[in-house]
Write a structure and sequence with these properties.
Order of helices and strands: HEEHEEEEEEHEEEEE
Structural class: alpha+beta
Number of strands: 13
Strand order of the largest sheet: 3-6-8-9-10-11
Strand content: 25-35%
CATH superfamily: tt1808, chain A
Number of domains: 1
CATH topology: tt1808, chain A
Radius of gyration: 17 Å
Length: 199
C-alpha cells in the first residue's frame, strides 16, 4: 500500500525562502520563482489603472466602492493562495484590510500568467476561486498582451470578454472606467525577460 501524501501546513510556507513565492493548493506546497519584468509591469500598470475604484463609493475622483490589493494572502478552505491582484467590494468587507491574511474571499481576482504558472492559474487556482464564490477572474498574459475576463455563472466560469494589444477597454466588474492596456505591457520593441520565451 502506498504511503499517504503528506498535507502541507503553514509552517511549510514559512520555510519558503523570500526570493520564492509559496502557496498551498489542494494540500500541496507549490513554490514558484518571483515573476520577471513583464509580469511586474502588468501588475503595477493594472493596479494603477484601478486606482479610481480603490476608495469609498461616490468619493471624488472615481466610482470607488472597492478595496484593491496586490499579492494578498488568501486563506480559503484549506488553501493558501497569493493572487497577483484581488479586490473586495466594500459593502462585503466594510472594515479595511488590517491583517496580513484574508479569510473572506475576494469578489474579483487577477492572475498574471507566466509560462511557469499559467496552467496552475487556469486550472487549480480558478477551481479554488469558483469554490469560494469569487465572482470575477481576470487572466492577463503580458507576453501575448491579452486580457481574458471571466464571470461566475451557474456554478462555472463564463468568459465574458477577451482583449488584446494596445487598446482601451471596459471590463467587468470595473466597466465604469476605461482601462488603457498599453500601460500594462513592455513596448513592442522590447523583448520579454522570461527565460525561454520570445517576443
Amino acid at each position: 500500500m502506498s504511503e499517504a501524501r503528506r498535507v502541507a501546513t503553514y509552517a511549510d510556507l514559512e520555510r519558503v525562502p523570500d526570493h520564492l513565492v509559496g502557496e498551498i493548493i489542494a494540500g500541496e506546497l507549490v513554490v514558484s520563482p518571483r515573476p520577471a519584468g513583464p509580469h511586474g509591469l502588468a501588475e503595477s500598470g493594472l493596479a494603477g489603472g484601478l486606482f479610481p475604484f480603490n476608495k469609498r463609493a461616490e468619493g471624488p475622483g472615481g466610482p470607488g466602492g472597492w478595496w484593491i490589493l496586490t499579492e494578498p494572502e488568501l486563506h480559503l478552505g484549506g488553501d493558501v493562495l497569493i493572487p497577483d491582484i484581488a479586490g473586495w467590494r466594500r459593502e462585503r468587507l466594510p472594515q479595511g484590510p488590517v491583517d496580513a491574511a484574508f479569510t473572506v474571499a475576494p469578489d474579483w481576482v487577477c492572475e498574471i500568467l507566466s509560462p511557469r504558472t499559467a496552467s496552475r492559474d487556469r486550472i487549480q487556482k480558478m477551481d479554488c476561486y469558483l469554490r469560494e464564490n469569487v465572482q470575477h477572474v481576470w487572466l492577463v498574459d503580458p507576453l501575448e498582451r491579452t486580457l481574458e475576463v471571466y464571470r461566475r455563472h451557474d456554478g462555472n466560469w463564463l468568459r465574458v470578454g477577451a482583449f488584446a494589444g494596445y487598446t482601451r477597454v471596459r471590463a467587468e466588474p470595473f466597466e465604469a472606467e476605461e482601462l488603457d492596456m498599453s500601460r500594462w505591457w513592455l513596448e513592442p520593441t522590447e523583448a520579454p525577460t522570461e527565460p525561454g520565451t520570445t517576443p
